[in-house]
Each structure stands twice: as structure tokens, then as C-alpha cells.
Design goal:
Alpha-Beta Plaits, 3 helices, four-stranded antiparallel β-sheet, 92 residues
Length: 92
């Protein structure tokens, strides 16, 4: 089964609704959450998601823009990075 993976990272002050807002956006664009980790560290919310964007009919840039908009509204730093870019950046 082919997948097109991307990473989403979320960092900011802990508050209600972070996971709900991000996962709702992903659901609306047919993006599957493959793996998710989250933790509260000294009052800060830290989440990493591995998502499959293969079935999404929306350009990754639109998803990135809407995630950043959620980040602005909730005072969070949200980044979306395609797996290919991540691999290039972390080559030894």
C-alpha cells in the first residue's frame, strides 16, 4: 500500500481543543492520522503527527496554510512538512 507521508508538529501553551481542531481539519481533507504523540511539558503542549496525505484532493499548501491559521487563532506554532523534505534535511 502506497502512502504519502507528512509530519505535523504543534507547540504552544496547553489549552482545550488543540487535538480536536487539528484532527477536524485533517478529517475534512481526507488526511489519515498514521501516528500521533502528545505531551504536556511544563504547561506547554507538544504534539507530533505522522499523516498520510495520499487521498487528499487538496494541495498540501492549502492544508499548511489552514493549519497555520489555526495556529494563529490558538497562539500555537503549527508546521506541516512533507516526508521527502524531512528526509533531505536529515541526511547524514
Amino acid at each position: 500500500m502506497n502512502k504519502e507521508l507528512s509530519f505535523i508538529t504543534v507547540i504552544g501553551e496547553d489549552q482545550k481543543g488543540i487535538v480536536a481542531k487539528v484532527s477536524d481539519l485533517l478529517y475534512r481533507y481526507d488526511i489519515n492520522i498514521e501516528d500521533i504523540t502528545q505531551k504536556i511539558m511544563d504547561g506547554y503542549f507538544v504534539m507530533t503527527m505522522l499523516v498520510d496525505v495520499k487521498d487528499s484532493k487538496v494541495a498540501l499548501e492549502k492544508v499548511r496554510s489552514e493549519l497555520e491559521e489555526i495556529g494563529t487563532q490558538m497562539k500555537l506554532k503549527i508546521q506541516l512538512q512533507h516526508e521527502d523534505i524531512f528526509k533531505v534535511m536529515h541526511r547524514v
